Amino acid sequence: MPIVEIEEGVSLSYEEFGSGTPLLLVAGLGGAASYWKPQIEPFAKNYRVILHDQRGTGSSTHSRIDYSVEQMTSDLIKLMDRIGIEKAYLVGHSTGAVIGQVMAVEHPERLLGLVMYAAWTSTDPFMRRIQEARKTLALSAGAEAYVKATPLFLYPNWYINQNAEPLAEADKAGAARFHPTDIAAARVDAVLKFDGEADLRRVRTPTLVLGVEDDVLTPAHYSRTIARAIPCAELTIMPRGGHAASITCPEEFNRIVLDYLGRLDQKGSSAC
Q1: CB 121 within 8 A of CB 196
Q2: Is the distance from CB of 55 to CB of 75 less than 8 angstroms?
Q3: Which residues of the chain register pLDDT less than 70?
Q4: What class is the 3-122+195-267 domain?
Q5: Edge-to-edge strands of the sheet including 3-7?
Q6: What secondary structure, in 3-state letters, does 149-185 show?
Q7: Hey, where are the domains in the chain?
Q8: How much is the pLDDT for 270?
Q9: Count of alpha carbons within 13 angstroms of residue 134, beta-carbon side
Q10: Beta strands in 54-181 (DSSP E)
Q11: Within 10 A of 50 (CB to CB), how many other CB atoms are there?
Q12: How, if at all, do strands 47-53 and 88-93 pair?
């Protein structure tokens, strides 16, 4: 993966596939470009797909800072500037969707369209309990335990049962390359302190809100609330797939997203 310096002492690792209109795929709390593996080939047939490891994750700089969604958004804008992307579509997962929301509010001129997948905009008691448990797990039990527990939040039981061996191998690989646990905890703090609900009505970027009915980490009611608040937003709820439906049900996910982007291509993206 190429590495580009976005500011003094901070570099981001990124990859590009395909050609055409730029399409940013932005991962969630885990922050790794590898999350989007099932989307690369089908999306790159029509778009210039850009993926990156967010600061603190993967091969990017492991800064020990006060992480925030706004800082993650600023990093992405700087990456766009460094690699010459003026405007792009953005498909964001969970925290990546919230990064897309912040960009749509603060830098709408940089977006052609937005897909907010498994999104949330502020933490309620349910979500705080989950994220605080994940933070405690990282700090108290370490990387191996955190990585092993992560599928419980991402995947439905049927997917875990059908993929026990590959997930076990992924656990080993994930623990080996896991970012420092204090950084993992700091990134959880970024989720806990973000509250963008009041800004949803300021989003004028064409937006698809994509939820999943059996998502236990960001339940579908978040997506329904977001879609009601954003002017001109479209809402699609997948019946199953869990929090990581782009992995568990990639064909359906890819079809929904590519159909939406294709319709934007045809009519030309414009503000609501």
Answers
A1: yes
A2: yes
A3: 269-271
A4: alpha beta
A5: 3-7, 10-17, 47-53, 21-26, 88-93, 111-117, 207-212, 234-238
A6: HHHHHHCCHHHHHHCHHHHHHHHHHHHHCCCCHHHHH
A7: 3-122+195-267
A8: 65
A9: 26
A10: 88-93, 111-117
A11: 23
A12: unpaired
CA distances from 62 to 157, 182, 186 (A): 33, 10, 11
Grouping H, G, I as helix, E, B as strand and the rest as coil, residue 61 is coil
For helices 69-82 and 95-106, angle between their N-to-C axes, nearest 10 degrees: 70
Phi-psi domain of 258 (left: phi exceeds 0; alpha: psi -120 through 50; beta: other): alpha
Q: Which helix (H) or strand (E) holds 257?
A: helix 250-267
* Spatial CA neighbour of 24 closest among 6, 36, 7, 12: 36
Q: What residues contact 107, with CB distance under 8 A and at least 6 apart?
A: 73, 77
Query: 19-72, pLDDT tens digit by residue?
Result: 999 999 999 999 999 999 999 999 999 999 999 999 999 999 999 999 999 999
Residues ≥6 apart with Cβ < 8 Å to 133? none
Give 149's contacts (C-beta < 8 A, 6+ positions apart). 134, 137
CA-to-CA dists, residue 20 to 28, 113, 230, angstroms: 25, 15, 28
One-letter amino acid of 33: A
